[in-house]
């Protein structure tokens, strides 16, 4: 159950009186834009020690999020790349001149170098789908580091060294069944090659708050924690590092059982919660809530994970806000002041997922919803798209040193200038 007494959140009234008056005299603006300074046009200011920056990078081709932690520890969660930009897909950003993984690697290198870093400490793969790790298609260039093609994360690793790899399926890549297909094979060949070159590879460990740790000055930031919540049916039990399994025995692999009776790749996604002082953040890959019309209640992993995560300040929408995600239980449990949608398709977000995220019956506090990109067709189909705080650009969460407040800045995704299109906040963090 949700704790109904959790503190009501207030948006910090940091805006000037003039802006407040202007917003009040334009109801549409106050509804859609809120506390926004539009079009600052300045270049995104570099990370400084003590800050936590989380860049939700858009290429129109899948997920990628770059974390620069308070002591400079760096982490990339996912590096998706798809190539069939049909009429349902969002057009490549900044352009089709480079592969999505190249754009992600260049983005990460640029921002890490400004922070005095030249490597990615952790790459965390939420699950083994092309829009999160990189699709294999014929004709991609090959790496010189090993026998694999360049796409998604393998492109990133050509641009920046990656020290630790963490995914849900290492070392056997056989749960709930042997992973097949050229994109999976390419990723696994990459992991094996990186391991031979000296990189550390681990399986994501649900329940742990030590696997994703600060690597540079952990003693300086004792109030920083990443709690692994879930992967492969194993859910943090809420105390210590104990876990419980949410997949029933009937869903586990057995000889002769058809794939359709097993957990899906999405249902095995990695989820974690980050806390820094009073700030908290949730991300859970492509977890979903589709129970096969009630036949398989255990498939609603999204709700189970959200209930153990509890309230956060910022939540990444599961499964790109698709129709089987962001159900009422998850929205109410997470009750964030900001949702972030990482989108690449005309159904991201779907009407119902966005309706839930915006609905004050699920929780009464103010919240903003940001999308990295929205197709014009979706704006026509889904009227609530007009209520998004942003529908184009990299969504960057910047948490102030100590974690008392955060801002969200939207960076132009059509070039590499890192121009700030709009600023939102500051928002007061609410704590656990
Ligand atoms: Zn996905």
SSE order: HHEEEEHEHHEHEEEEEEHEHEHEHEEE
The top-level CATH class is: Alpha Beta
Question: Whole-number average pLDDT?
Answer: 92
Q: What level of helicity do the residues show?
A: 10-25%
The tally of helices reads 10
Strand content: 15-25%
Low-confidence stretches: 1-34
- Structurally, the number of domains stands at 1
CATH topology: Metallo-beta-lactamase, Chain A
User: What's the CATH superfamily, by name?
Assistant: Ribonuclease Z/Hydroxyacylglutathione hydrolase-like
The strand order across the widest sheet is 1-18-17-16-2-3-4-5-6-7
Structural description of this entry:
The chain starts with 16 loop residues before the first helix and ends with a strand. It is globular and about 60 Å long. It is built from ten helices and 18 strands. The strands form two sheets. Strands 1-18-17-16-2-3-4-5-6-7 form a ten-stranded mixed sheet. The chain has one domain (39-428): Ribonuclease Z/Hydroxyacylglutathione hydrolase-like (Metallo-beta-lactamase, Chain A). 20% of the residues lie in helices and 21% in strands. Mean pLDDT is 92; it is low at 1-34. The protein has helices spanning 17-25, 27-32, 100-114, 130-133, 153-159, 182-196, 301-309, 328-334, 351-358, 376-381, and strands at 36-38, 52-56, 64-68, 74-79, 120-124, 162-167, 200-203, 224-231, 234-236, 243-245, 271-276, 279-283, 314-316, 338-341, 368-371, 394-399, 405-411, 420-428. With 432 residues, it is an alpha/beta fold. Bound molecules: zinc ion. Zinc ion is lined by residues 129, 131-132, 286, 320. Zinc ion binds at residues 129, 131-132, 286, 320.
């Amino acid at each position: 159950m949700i704790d109904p007494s959790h503190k009501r959140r207030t948006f910090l009234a940091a805006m000037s009186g003039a802006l407040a008056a202007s917003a009040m005299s334009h109801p549409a603006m106050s509804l859609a834009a809120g506390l926004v300074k539009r079009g600052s046009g300045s270049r995104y200011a570099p990370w400084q020690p003590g800050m936590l920056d989380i860049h939700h990078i858009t290429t129109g081709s899948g997920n990628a999020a770059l974390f620069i932690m308070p002591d400079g520890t760096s982490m990339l969660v996912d590096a998706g790349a798809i190539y069939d930009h049909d009429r349902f897909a969002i057009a490549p950003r900044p352009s089709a001149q480079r592969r999505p993984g190249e754009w992600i690697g260049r983005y990460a290198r640029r921002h890490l170098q400004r922070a005095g870093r030249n490597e990615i400490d952790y790459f965390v793969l939420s699950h083994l789908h092309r829009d999160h790790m990189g699709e294999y298609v014929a004709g991609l260039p090959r790496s010189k580091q090993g026998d694999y093609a360049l796409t998604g994360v393998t492109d990133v690793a050509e641009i920046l060294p990656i020290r630790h790899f963490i995914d849900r399926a290492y070392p056997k890549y056989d749960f709930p069944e042997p992973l097949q297909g050229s994109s999976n094979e390419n990723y696994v060949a990459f992991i094996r090659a990186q391991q031979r070159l000296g990189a550390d590879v681990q399986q994501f460990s649900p329940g742990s708050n030590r696997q994703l740790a600060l690597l540079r000055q952990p003693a300086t930031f004792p109030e920083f924690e990443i709690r692994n919540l879930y992967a492969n049916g194993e859910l943090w039990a809420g105390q210590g590092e104990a876990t419980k399994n949410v997949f029933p025995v009937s869903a586990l692999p057995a000889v002769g059982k058809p794939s359709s009776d097993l957990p899906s790749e999405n249902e095995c996604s990695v989820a974690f919660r980050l806390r820094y002082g009073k700030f908290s953040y949730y991300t859970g890959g492509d977890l979903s809530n589709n129970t096969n019309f009630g036949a398989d209640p255990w498939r609603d992993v999204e709700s189970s994970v959200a209930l153990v995560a509890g309230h956060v300040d910022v939540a990444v929408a599961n499964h790109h806000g698709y129709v089987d995600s962001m159900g009422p239980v998850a929205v109410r449990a997470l009750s964030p002041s900001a949702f972030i949608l990482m989108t690449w398709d005309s159904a991201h977000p779907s009407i119902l997922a966005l309706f839930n995220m915006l609905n004050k019956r699920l929780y009464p506090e103010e919240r903003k919803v940001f999308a990295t990109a929205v197709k014009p067709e979706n704006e026509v189909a889904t009227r609530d798209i007009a209520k998004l705080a942003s529908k184009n650009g990299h969504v960057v969460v910047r948490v102030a040193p100590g974690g008392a407040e955060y801002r969200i800045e939207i960076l132009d995704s059509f070039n590499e200038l890192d121009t700030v299109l709009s600023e939102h906040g500051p928002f007061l963090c609410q704590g656990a």
